[in-house]
Write a structure and sequence with these properties.
- The protein is α+β, with helices and mostly antiparallel strands and about 190 residues long.
- Helix content is about 20%, strand content about 25%.
- It contains five helices and six strands; from the N terminus they run ββααββββααα.
- A six-stranded antiparallel beta sheet has the order 1-2-4-5-6-3, with helices on one face.
- The longest helix is centred in the middle third of the chain and has 14 residues, at about 80-90.
């Protein structure tokens, strides 16, 4: 990405990312990490409902269709919604590392307008890991997976412990998740950047 800040450049000696042996296999739909997540959850009536699939290595693809509730200018996707789609896609990479991480920095370029009704085809990959820092990049295309790039981003995610969410989340939601009898749903709620 042209013009990304020095904070998004991996330091000398950063490690090449390694896909976790328990990561979902290429082609597998990653699913929702939390029902009420604006980016991927089915419990948000105006959310993106972004669906991501594991790719090769530490990469994935995702897509979402811009709805009327996502517009900024008449008939066009709001830039903040497009940034959210990129952030959600980048955050989903953590499934492949099996790491709990949150967005530390996100730099986005908007290259083309994205009309309402358009499906945005996203690709993302982790480029480097340095300690708790995870460096990654994503692009969003229109008119098909090989269409013109409409948006792109570079990001830095920071690995955290589950306590991050417990300490900073709203008590009611944290308790609801912690009291969910479905152990798998309870664990997934904290697995990726919410």
């Amino acid at each position: 990405m042209s013009g990304s800040s020095a904070a998004l450049q991996p330091p000398a000696g950063a490690a090449k990312p390694v896909r976790h042996p328990d990561a979902p296999p290429p082609g597998e739909l990653l699913g929702t990490h939390y029902d009420h997540c604006f980016g991927c959850g089915p419990g948000q009536p105006h959310g993106l409902r972004l669906q991501a699939r594991a790719g090769e290595g530490v990469s994935l693809t995702a897509e979402f269709t811009v709805q009327p509730a996502h517009q900024g200018a008449p008939g066009l996707a709001h830039g903040g919604v497009l940034a959210t789609a990129l952030d959600e896609t980048l955050g989903s990479l953590n499934w492949l590392l099996r790491t709990i991480a949150v967005t530390g920095r996100l730099e986005t370029d908007f290259l083309r307008p994205v009309p309402v009704g358009t499906t945005l085809y996203l690709e993302a990959e982790v480029t480097a890991v340095a300690g708790r820092k995870i460096y990654c990049t994503a692009t969003g295309r229109i008119e098909g997976p090989d269409g013109p790039v409409a948006v792109r981003a570079d990001a830095l995610f920071v690995e955290v412990k589950v306590d991050h969410f417990v300490d900073h989340g709203r008590k009611e939601e944290i308790e609801a998740v912690m009291n969910d009898p479905d152990r798998m749903r309870r664990a997934r709620a904290f697995e990726v950047n919410p």
